[in-house]
């Protein structure tokens, strides 16, 4: 799982995306949906009306891997355990841009 601050290109994308969040759960059509990441356009930064939600398989290229330390590794362990238990009950989201 990529660290917050990582910069990626999505498949068929031409804009760099910076990872803002890992494992966001959204409510779509009255059900909870899990994405691997949320992100924003780089270098623009966060615009709440242009948050992108995407999954690991949608990443074409990692341009920069964000900072990692023992807390990141611990988070990864806990998150993977959560995915095996509660996370497996959630539908995986399709790549999209959430516009409010």
From TrEMBL:
The record's Pfam families line, in alphabetical order, gives: DUF4176
The record's annotation in InterPro entries points to: DUF4176
Q: What is this protein called?
A: Type II secretion protein
């Amino acid at each position: 799982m990529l660290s917050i601050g990582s910069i990626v290109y999505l498949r068929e994308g031409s804009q760099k995306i910076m990872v803002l969040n890992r494992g966001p759960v959204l409510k779509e059509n009255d059900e909870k949906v899990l994405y691997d990441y949320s992100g924003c356009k780089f270098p623009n930064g966060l615009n709440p009306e242009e948050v992108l939600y995407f999954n690991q398989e949608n990443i074409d290229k990692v341009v920069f891997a964000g900072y990692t330390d023992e807390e990141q590794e611990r988070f990864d362990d806990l998150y993977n355990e959560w995915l095996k238990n509660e996370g497996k009950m959630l539908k995986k989201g399709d790549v999209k841009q959430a516009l409010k």
